[in-house]
Design goal:
By secondary structure, this protein is an alpha/beta fold. It is about 45% helix and about 15% strand. It contains 10 helices and 13 strands. Helix 2 packs parallel to helix 4 and helix 8 packs across helix 10. The two termini are about 35 Å apart. The structure holds NADP nicotinamide-adenine-dinucleotide phosphate (NAP). NADP nicotinamide-adenine-dinucleotide phosphate binds next to helix 1 and strand 6. One of its GO terms (cellular component) is cytosol. This is dTDP-4-dehydrorhamnose reductase. One of its GO terms (molecular function) is dTDP-4-dehydrorhamnose reductase activity.
Length: about 290
């Protein structure tokens, strides 16, 4: 069955993967960029959704971690208030609302966190994104709140392509110093988009952790990238204090994906295998340029 899919933040890394996936599947996709539709202009957003009549709105647009710390008012306007408005419009239009949330809600203890762990909100980004999640669930009965891990994948042309950036860095030789004390679950956007679609097909609104299976330190992540790009550059795990950030991000963002299991879906692929698959795709893209 052909569906109508509306994606916010068109042109972004995850939104582009979603647009590619649903277009290839034969669905009717509308993914306006910020220049075409700013989600802060809520009247225009409402008109666009009521006109397009999507089966699902996939909401990826957000203000990111460091920008939130610098601009807290905009952080809550975009990540909380605009999210809540989108959810309300979806409720009115009878559209499912997919909110792309965050993994950075659990503080510093190094362990895996499930959907049932209490949150510890250390950054403005975490507070604003989490508030977006709470409001989305309140405003729209058919909200699918998705907490992904550290995202990678997509075209090398995406400015935020983490794997490609590390490939460029490693290609220069020498060594790469990276945090050995920050932990997460790297998540391939190709796998994430497919799993979100499985959740939609199961028609089970709710809260889902959807990350690459397993986890590791930032240094483990970079090592895997370098190895799978066929490079010999040494990766040195260091204290994250060497790279001061505006936001005091949590030490641990590794997630258990319990609710996926509870609704009978298979786990996401292992993150290390996903890096291997993606590096092959990326190197092919570079060769064909
Ligand atoms: N990247 C990660 O590791 C990660 C991890 C967990 C969760 N997430 C969440 O995943 C989602 C997608 O992340 P991503 O990495 O794909 O981000 P991204 O590449 O920066 O995409 C976000 C897009 O939203 C657009 N945007 C910003 N403000 C907007 C507005 N007011 N109206 C319309 N569009 C607007 C951005 O445009 P401009 O670029 O022109 O500003 C950008 O194209 C976000 O919600 C993020 O919080 C990301």
């Amino acid at each position: 069955m052909k569906r109508k899919i509306f994606i916010t933040g068109g042109g972004g890394m995850l939104a582009s993967e979603m647009e590619f996936f649903y277009s290839k599947r034969g669905d009717d996709v509308f993914a306006p960029t910020i220049g075409q539709l700013n989600i802060l202009e809520i009247g225009k957003v409402e008109d666009a959704i009521l006109h397009f009549k999507p089966d699902y709105v996939l909401h990826t647009a957000a203000l990111h971690v460091n920008d939130c710390e610098e601009h807290p008012e905009m952080a809550f306007k975009l990540n909380s208030w605009a999210t809540s408005n989108l959810a309300r419009i979806c409720q009115k239009n009878n559209s499912g609302f997919v909110y792309i949330s965050s993994c950075g809600y659990f503080g510093d203890e190094v362990k895996y966190y499930s959907e049932y762990d209490p949150v510890v909100l250390k950054t403005v980004y975490a507070r604003a994104k989490h508030q977006g999640e709470v409001l989305a669930i309140k405003e729209c009965e058919r909200t699918f709140a998705i907490r992904p891990g550290w995202l990678f994948g997509g075209s090398v042309k995406q400015p935020k392509n983490f794997v490609y950036q590390r490939y460029l860095e490693a290609s220069k030789g020498g060594e790469i110093k990276t945090a050995g004390d920050k932990f997460g679950s790297p998540t391939y956007i190709g796998d994430l988009v497919m799993k979100i679609d499985e959740i939609l097909m199961a028609d089970r609104p709710g809260l889902y952790h959807v990350t690459g299976n397993g986890g590791g330190s930032r240094a483990d992540y970079v090592k895997k990238i370098v190895e799978n790009c066929g490079l010999k550059t040494k990766v040195v795990p260091v204290d994250s204090g060497l790279f001061p950030r505006k936001a005091n991000v949590p030490d641990c963002e590794m997630l258990h994906n319990w609710n996926l299991k509870f609704i009978g879906l298979s786990p996401m692929p292992n993150w290390e295998d996903a890096i291997e698959r993606y590096c092959k795709t990326m190197l092919e893209e570079l060769k064909s340029e």
